[in-house]
Amino acid sequence: MLSSSTLALSYLLILSSNVFAAPNLVPAAGQSIPLIRRAQPERTVAEWETWAKNEREVLTVKYGGNMEKRSTGTNLLTNQNADSSYFGTVAIGTPPVSFNVILDTGSSDLWVADQACTTGCSKIQLYNDLSSSTFHNLSEPFDIQYGSGAAAGTLGQDVVQMAGFSVPNQVFAAVTQVTSGLLEPPVSGLLGLGWQSIASSKATPFWQTLASSGAWSNPVMAFQLTRFMNASNVNTEEPGGSFTMGFVNSSLYTGSIDYQAVPTTPSYWILPMTSLTVQGSSISIPSGSSSYSAIDTGTTLVGGPSSVIQSIFAQIPGSQRGTGNWQGYYIYPCTTAVNVAISFGGPSWPISPADFQLTKISSSQCVGAFFELNTGGTAPNWIVGDTFLKNVYSVFRYNPAAVGFAALSNTATAMNGVNAAPPSATIGSVSASATAGTGGGSNSAPHRWGVPWAPLVGGISIAVGATWM
Fold first, then answer.
1. Once rounded to an integer, what is the mean pLDDT over residues 103-113?
2. DSSP code of 131?
3. 30: pLDDT confidence band, cut at 50, 70 and 90?
4. For 303-332, what is the mean pLDDT?
């Protein structure tokens, strides 16, 4: 028989077990349970982007998928001859050897001077196919013509690296003949950043292989270019800014990037010029395809239709047409600060008066950086080069094809005229790679922009150094 104290303890244990047991949620027959929807917290666009990215990655891993490896990279640029050109570095071969190359969004081929080069290639790094275990000779001739010269050689394939990215079978040209003055030491060649459709080699460009394969975190490449043409005691080589792949550097611009779609099947990076003002006055410009402008990092200046260039300088008192080597250019009083702004469908982007002033030819006369250009074939009427691009942060987007501009940040403009050493060539580790598609060669290439500018280039060379067009 249980004592009274034992009975009391047993009763308490029964009560406590009921208290800490899971609740009985089985509703009575016919009873309904209301569901309460909690209010969705407010999220910014950036927060939604982060959430969406994490959601995709978590579910991919959870259900046995493989996350593709994407990456970003930066190549520091060198400003050569007071804004005449900008070059970066690529590495070619196994083991890799670095080469300084002009970065050119107005063409689409990669070429470097070969060890067998006989003209126009002294005092520069030369490519030696015998030193690379991964070189493959395609035995196809290559030649390309620019406004400032030409290059010819043979097509091959090898490993090409830049800013942590690698393409193991990139088609490029090892050139053996270069027009004198086209390459200025320490530049060994050129990296085309235009689209495959205008490649003389018919090969997929290095950048396009990376972008189309998903090697980049974002399908964009971007430029920030420095200004030294109005600085004092300028060296032949100065810090040139940066070229990025797979991302935009938010520290180098302010506000938003205004993207404008490429209006045609991608070839050159083309935008329609929609407005042009000089000294606050609007200049009449053609519309439609006649307004198409190639956004070209490989060109120093801005070239356009003769009638429009004439109208620009008509707004500048005391201006006159150039003669001799300056034919196609205009001379104007150096004391006049010329303010030009261009729109491509979005904001109007101002050009610094320092960039409009190409050079002085006397104590009182200066040459303008806008010149008359009569292109041929399917080339656009306008070629918009570094005179404009030094004033914006420029972005070239693969998909959907577009060019974007943003205002430069104080961080970016503080690099103009800075007293610092130019970057040195480096070969970093590869963070992402992609395989190029097959591409055939071409026995000949058209003149770029279809116009011979040798006399003008000679004039510019005297003033500011070599010019790429």
1. 98
2. G
3. low
4. 97
Coil, helix or strand for 249? coil
Place of tokens 């980049």: 216
Using the CB atoms, write b or e for 380-411: b if 16+ within 10 Å: bbbbbbbbbbbbbbbbbbbeebbbbbbbbbee
Asked if pLDDT for residue 376 goes beyond 70, the answer is: yes
Cβ atoms of 291 and 380 within 8 Å: the answer is no
| Location of structure tokens 């969406």 | 52
End-to-end CA distance of the chain: 110
Q: Which amino acid is at 344?
A: F
289 pLDDT above the threshold of 80: yes
- Catalytic member of 109, 158, 258, 296: 296
Which of 50-64, 140-154, 247-261, 283-297 shows the lowest mean pLDDT across its residues?
50-64
Closest C-alpha to 368, from 323, 293, 297, 301: 301
Instruction: Give the range among 117-121, 207-211, 318-322, 423-427 with minimum mean pLDDT.
Output: 423-427
Report which of 244, 264, 224 is spatially closest to residue 406, judged by C-alpha positions: 224
Task: Classify residue 175 by burial, with Cβ atoms within 10 Å: 0-12, 13-18, 19+.
Answer: buried
Band (48; pLDDT cuts 50, 70, 90): confident
Measured between alpha carbons, how far is 330 from 303 in angstroms, rounded to an integer? 12
Q: Cis link prior to 400 (omega < 30° from 0)? A: yes
Q: Is the pLDDT of residue 372 over 80?
A: yes
Compute the average pLDDT of residues 373-389: 92
pLDDT in tens, 350-363: 999 999 999 999 99
111, 144 contact by CB (below 8 A):
yes
Closest among 435, 443, 469, 442 to 455, alpha carbons compared: 469
Asked if 292 and 381 touch (Cβ cutoff 8 Å), the reply is: yes
Question: Pick from 305, 366, 302: which is nearest to 334 by CA?
Answer: 366
What three-state secondary structure class fits 219?
A: coil
Cβ pair 386, 105 in contact under 8 A: no
Helix (H) or strand (E) holding 358: strand 357-360
Q: Which of 104, 109, 129, 258 is catalytic?
A: 104
Q: Is 296 a catalytic residue?
A: yes
Structure tokens at 182: 């086209």
On whether the CB atoms of residues 168 and 92 are closer than 8 A, the answer is no
Comparing CA positions, the residue from 362, 319, 370, 374 lying closest to residue 342 is 370
User: Counting every residue, how long is the chain?
Assistant: 469
